[in-house]
Automatic annotation (TrEMBL):
Catalyzed reactions: 2 GTP = 3',3'-c-di-GMP + 2 diphosphate
Protein name: diguanylate cyclase
CDD domains: GGDEF (cd01949)
Taxonomic source organism: Candidatus Manganitrophus noduliformans
One protein family per Pfam: GGDEF
Keywords, ordered alphabetically: Membrane, Transmembrane, Transmembrane helix
Residue intervals passing through the bilayer: 12-32, 47-68
Record-listed E.C. numbers: 2.7.7.65
Lineage: Bacteria, Pseudomonadati, Nitrospirota, Nitrospiria, Candidatus Troglogloeales
Length: 253
């Protein structure tokens, strides 16, 4: 969302015209005296009257400038908040699917231009529907929030991108990260979530690495396919697009 420039321009014009009129009206006793007598001040009484009038008008000028500045700041704050809400999942307070797709497209284009590597994690909470049905939506929402916050803690703020893809699925873009490093980060996420939930619920995860000629859809499909292979093998594990299961995986962890 952006400012309406025409509206902002009209407001600026209004302020400038208002300032001009205030100064013109405030200076009226002076230029009338100058026109009629050739002198700004005829008497001491005129001097004090003009000082008082000018002071009052200066206060009005500063007040108008202050109000205009505060209104502009408020509008900017409101715009930034609307932008934040438009790209944030309201429940987990991490990025939403809309922003994720936007960011993934940008990273694919960047990787093609600069010949750099990045990885994609696709996560699903094992048995979430059963857990949600058994313990209720409030408990299910808590699980989703915990997953989102654990993801944020394990990735680099301002560099990587963690998002709720939809339902109980999450996605993570890992910048300048190869397959082995991505698997290690995924394992930290899996282990932290598993331990936090005391083993009663877990994550399955697929990992794919950007390849030359990839589109966002192809990359996402490979990560999604790897995630479903992890689930078919019993869940609570990480699978790469090539079928590699993370070597440090411990079924008891």
């Amino acid at each position: 969302m952006q400012f309406d420039r025409s509206e902002t321009s009209l407001e600026t014009l209004f302020v400038l015209v208002s300032l001009f009129l205030i100064l013109l009206i405030g200076a009226t006793p002076w230029w009338v005296d100058l026109y009629q007598t050739g002198s700004f001040f005829q008497t001491r009484k005129d001097l004090f009257a003009n000082i008082a009038s000018t002071s009052l008008n200066l206060v009005m000028v500063f007040l108008l400038i202050y109000l205009f500045t505060q209104r502009t700041k408020l509008q900017q704050t409101r715009t930034m908040e609307l932008q934040r809400l438009s790209m944030t999942d309201h429940l987990t307070e991490i990025y939403n699917a809309r922003f994720f797709h936007h960011r993934l497209g940008k990273e694919v284009e960047r990787a093609k231009r600069q010949k750099e590597v990045f990885s994609l994690l696709f996560l699903d909470i094992d048995g979430f529907k059963r857990y949600n049905d058994s313990y209720g939506h409030t408990a299910g929402d808590s699980v989703l929030k915990e997953a989102g916050q654990i993801i944020l803690r394990m990735i680099r703020e301002g560099v990587d991108c963690g998002a709720r893809y939809g339902g109980d699925e999450f996605s993570v873009i890992l910048i300048d990260t190869d397959l082995e490093a991505a698997m290690e980060i995924g394992e930290r996420i899996r282990l932290a979530f598993h331990q936090h939930r005391n083993g009663n619920i877990s994550l399955s995860m697929g990992v794919a690495v950007f390849k030359r000629g990839d589109t966002p859809e192809r990359l996402l499909k490979r990560a999604d396919d790897a995630m479903y292979r992890a689930k078919r093998k019993g869940g609570n594990r990480i699978e790469s697009e090539s079928g590699w299961t993370y070597s440090r995986y411990d079924k008891t962890a």
